[in-house]
Write a structure and sequence with these properties.
The protein is α/β, with parallel strands linked by helices and about 260 residues long. It is built from seven helices and 13 strands.
Length: about 260
């Protein structure tokens, strides 16, 4: 069984961030201030647990894939150190914003050629929080999809997977999907493991193939960032003191003075 885990490189939220000169996206002041999206760590860990569950019975392989410029390669190395068997880099030149649709189009084209049985993503990315890539991949490929998955059980012989997912109002939904399928994995489903020394050494030696975006699919820039800016600073609030009656009188004067009433 072939599993694909989609990992995204995001700016470290603890790093000093600024807006890039073009005013279109985030530019960390330290070029090394990028890391793996934490939600994708849960997806990768779940893939590892599936592989361990079927160890000795079914051959399960785990590939990781990331879309971005050359700087995403350390994130792919980290996925190898955490236990992925192979990493693949879909290279795009822009270092700024890449729309979820553009990302999903490229990953779907890659996944279709790879013949994967299961595609996992994190429930969302920490930078844009769009929660779209997994669902878009499923739509493009025509695969069934479950989002915000909190538990799963693969029935490999039946080519099916049972999942439990979070929905609104604290409710949960149980689904059965045919494979191949796409799951977006909710945080808390597991506890991502640390990289073992042997895996770190293996990852340092392992080559990561690069595929240019042009080799996979015609890119459609359906969404672009027109501007990114800091919120305007507002004047501080005023705390009214006194009895409720006195506060009401002061508030009335303030509102009259500003011609609001």
């Amino acid at each position: 069984m072939k599993t694909l885990v989609c990992v995204k490189q995001v700016p470290d939220t603890e790093a000093l961030l600024s807006i890039d000169p073009g005013g279109k996206w985030i530019a960390p002041q330290d070029a090394a201030a990028f890391r793996m999206n934490r939600f994708d760590e849960f997806a990768l860990e779940e893939a590892m647990r599936i592989k361990e569950r079927f160890s000795g019975r079914i051959d399960v392989s785990i590939d990781s894939v990331s879309v971005g410029p050359a700087r995403v390669r350390p994130t792919l190395k980290e996925s190898l150190a955490r236990g992925a068997d192979n990493g693949f880099h879909i290279r795009v030149e822009e270092a700024g914003y890449i729309s979820p649709f553009d990302t999903a189009t490229l990953i779907a084209a890659f996944a279709e050629k790879g013949g994967y049985d299961l595609i996992l993503t994190g429930v969302m990315a920490e930078d844009d929080m769009a929660c779209l890539v997994g669902s878009l991949i499923a739509e493009i490929l025509g695969y069934p999809c479950a989002t915000a998955v909190i538990s799963q059980k693969i029935k490999a012989e039946e080519r099916r997977i049972d999942v439990e997912r979070e929905i609104e109002a604290g409710c949960r939904e149980c689904l059965q999907l045919d494979l191949p399928a796409v799951l977006t994995i909710q945080s808390g489903i597991n506890s991502p493991r640390y990289s073992s020394l042997s895996n770190v050494m293996r990852a340092s030696r392992q080559k990561i193939p690069t595929i240019s975006a042009e080799q996979l699919a015609a890119r459609q820039k359906t969404e672009q960032v027109s501007a990114l800016f800091y919120p305007e600073k507002r004047s501080g609030g005023k705390i009214l003191e006194g009895t409720p009656r006195e506060k009401a009188q002061v508030l009335l004067r303030e509102l009259h003075g500003k011609a609001l009433i």
